[in-house]
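Supplementary Text 2. Reproducibility record for the structural model of the 1228-residue chain.

All settings were left at their defaults, and a single model was retained for analysis rather than an ensemble. We include the record here because the model underlies the residue-level annotations in Supplementary Table 4.
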Amino acid sequence: MLMKSTKLMGIVLTVALTGLISPDLISKEPPGAKGSKNQASLLRVTGTPEYAVLAINNITTWVRYDGHSNHSPMGDDGAYYPRGTGSFIYQDGIVWGGSMYLDAARTVPYSSVSINQNVRVGGGTYGVGTRAGRVVDPSIGPSGVEYPGAPDVHIYRIRRDYAFMSRVEREASAAAVNEIGPENVTQAMIDADSARFAVDWTNWPVAKGAPYIERNGVPGYQPPPAFSEAFGVDDLITGHYDEPGLAGADLSAPADEVLWTVYNDLNVAETQSFEGSDPIGLEIQKTVWGYKRTDAIGNVWFNRYRLMNKGGVDRDASDAVSYGAFHVDSMYVCQWSDVDLGNAGDDLLGCDTLLNIGFAYNGNVRDDEYDLFSMPPPSAGYDLLSGPLVTAPGDSGIFDLKWIHGKKNLGMTSFAYFSSSSPYQDPPWVDYLNGTGRWWKLLRGFAPLGSLVTADQPYNYPAGIEPSVFTLSGDPVAGTGWLDGKGEPSSIVPGDRRLLVTTGPFTMVPGDTQEVYIAGVAGMGADRLSSVAVMKANARAAQNLFDHLFGGTPVVNRLVEIRHPGAAVTELAIRATPPPGMVVQFGEILFQPEAGSEPTFSTPLFDDGAHFDSLAGDGIWGAVQATSNRQYPYRAKLTLQTSAGPIVLEDFLTGLTLRPRPVLSDWSIVWEDGKQDGKLNPNENVIVSFSVHNVDPVNAINQLTVLNEGVSPFESNRSATALAPISPGATASGEVFTLSFHTALSESSASLLYTVAYDGVAYSSNARFPVEPWTPDASWRDTLEVLKSVGVTMNVIPVIADPAAMTGHDYLVSFVTLNDTTGEVGWSLQDMNTSAWLLTAQRLSTNIDGWPHPVVDGVQYIVRNVPTDFVDFQQLSDGAGPLNPPHFASFGFIGVPTTLAPQDRPTPDAGGGQWGIITGNTGSTMSYDYFVLRVTNGGARWPILLRNDWEIRFTAGPNYGLEPDAFTGMGNNFMRVPFELWYVGPDPNDASDDYRLFPYMIGDGDSTFDITRFDNNVSGGDNDPETDWFYWVIPTDKTPGQAGYNAIVSSIQANIPGHAYMDPAIMNGDAMRRMVLVNYNGGSVASPTFPENLTSKMPATGSVFRIVTGKPNVAGDRVVVRAIATTGVGGNGIVPDRIDLAQNYPNPFNPVTSIRYQIPQKATVKLEVFDVLGRKVQTLVNKEHVPGSYVVEWDGKTSHGISVSTGVYFYSLTVGDRLMTKKMVLLK
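Retained model, structure tokens:
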């Protein structure tokens, strides 16, 4: 929600985002947000809009009229950078807190007989505690505010050139408003956007507090004339007209686009919905603006929050009602942000106390989202330009973009964070003691642990560093200080981070207004770390603009050359050309490090024709300065003394590299998937190694990464990083640097374009290689036959790399234990003809296309790892019969995996129920991780579960289960149940190994297995009733069929009270625990007619649910590879003499490919398609064949008619006990 402000003394926050041209996540929504994305999409962006987007420059950013910030109407990420590419902020907002007092001396704290809320916290993060509308009459309390649904209570958006925008600009603006690409914009969208601009320009709410530019000297706002052919944008300035919007010291340089709204915190229920606190009595105006510029400021957006202590809150301690305003002491305001640099799960944080900035950068060299645009991950942060005003005799501070004497602005007073997969989690919602309590700690720089009444605790901090309220204050570019991401208590692994830049404390008496300016900054360099350096340079540019009160600065053209006259010396030649008319008396350049702590140095400028300055006396100034090599990049601050006074350009030059570049040499091919000749051949994928030489004899290279800027066939070889510093003048030793790339089919030479990023700087170059002609056999990249010995065969994919090098031998792939402690499984390869072991102790591949799979005797061996995980939860049938396609029977929206996408929740079956498998509600947040934890008993059951599937079958029975005394303490309760539990083994279609399990249960005390009044918290509301809990008890007798189950039933029936829990004579532990079925949205558990109000009380007889697990190989498995190239299948009608599966054609393909196969005798044939995780995508054939040759087409769709994405797929032919698998690639 948004808060509004009036012209009193209060608080203003200005947020500016500046830029140039990332483990398991916890919920990012407040309670009750079920379906919030669909709800958000209904909120207005036209008419009387609740949302508006700033889209004037290189960043798009959303604002909602009630204070909800940087989250789009469609419930998506709220900010994109560079514009039209990746998302970099999921959501942000401000949070405030303080102590409430009744007297001016702040000696009488607020408390009442029913609640003591002296400390209060408000604002918003994923949810907000505020409502749109200004405070009109605080004397009557919460009712004295504007109605949020009033026609004039909305967010306003103006653009001063709206009447003169080009077609391209209009399309871009309408595209941003509608969250679509410009190519999808319609004329109606453009017209609506233009009309909205016109309405808001004409009705700009100055009377409510919206800013305007005073030019005509007449007090108050006089609207300018309407735009026309005779009156344009420039006339606003030259004619000295007042203007809607905002400007600083230079009235001729106004903001080009401005958003404005106002909101308040007076609604008690709304405010409590955030963190349980009552209102403070604030009204907030929020102004957002940007500039249509192509320099750094063109990548900035500014937000201004104006908080005013207007009152309208209940001050009475006796629980009567008496409205007024508090004296607020120890007030803090923080900029909170969930910065997601593309992928949300791999980010890191830091702060710079000199720049007053908290920032985020990527924990990985690459980011999946930014990779789509061939961009490195950016860095983003929030720079506290100036905090609230406090008394400071003899000093000056900024208020309303004017200097105020006798005051000063507070800076960043703490930097805090919380993160998924860490001890520091989001404070709980709607919880005064813990939610408000933890925010109160965060605002003061302490860890979010404990509650309001527990002692403050500092964050974990590394050895050698004192506890501090400025966490993670190191320099990631230099690799020094307290850094994030090391996997230690004080430096957790990369994850989904939230940062807090805080300023305070200060006081607010009734009627006060304060201002705080924050610049959010983005930057993109050559890699993740140089992006930090660029971001900080942009932060300094934002600070410089602010220090000049957004006034104009002259443009001084620049030219720089960097030379190395000696290996240890760097020489800079710099030229500065002032604008015409500027009379420069003298000048100086100060060089300062952008990272690290190397010393500064300076040089005067000359206009004598002898210092790289053109001609003597021509007004062009220059300098030539030599210095010893410096390790980290420098920036240049230019000072010119002119006849009109000094001109200072803080970032005249940035990113200066004052050292020779490292050199890459000794290029060599170390792996290839074609001819094994150590040379590049046409259409090959290759891996090349190289060495890195530090040419600089003065400085070590502390951090270095080489990135392949072209197409890389192997994700793991897209970059190479030095594992240790490279000494001055040395070549990296003990390391093998490798990159992979692909050669085209017809090239005579190939080029590898790469970027070397080191110690905060980068350069790009390329290496060229000759291509040796080669015409491979037709079987090249065909897949060989894999024969089953022990274990599954689908994880071994032998691909022909060099047909001429093949032996025709048989090879044994043996799976072995690599590490007895971790249980990691690997593999070895033996030539069965010679008995020679050719490979030993190889690791399994976790990524088919990201692993340099070994090539032996002309064959590339892809031996993949399968994650320890469930693969799918399916309802195969209901009371009406089989379901085709099956229904997804769990909850994808909390992360449960499925092959049935886009299904992400249960679908109604013939009985009306939407049945899903999950774990029982314990009050803990429901997630897939929590489900796995509970059902597998913390992972202890994986050895039983993996490589096998399991079924719940609802049958007429009689079926039996037991609620054991060990669970309830009320004796053994033997009862009938409506279902059977079955182990169906690695192949569900093979019933020869299936056996039935016995259910243990935990019920609700009614001695019946049924639906209960317990609402499962898999989603919001109270309409997801769950069944009694059940456990999968394994019989001691696992003879296929029901013998083991019957033995358990007979034993219990013979002596129900005497049955011993998990009696080893008849039971062998359990396979899964604490499972329930949930009727999703099935009806309210609070209904007085429950359970008759439900859509279904239990799945109907005939319903079958299947749980599918991963199928990894284990130590002791063995498969045989026959290294005989396949020849394909002809269509000549001749009966084949062997089973064969040909390579699909075409390959790669889009959208259809043909698959040929042959069988020599009558047999049942199954042809299936799998993805790289082993999940079945489609069954193409499953029937009996007569001998012959066959061809079938696959159209790139699942068995449910859904098109699959670009990627690698495998197709497997099963004929009896023979299985053959090949790889194919779909390219869209």
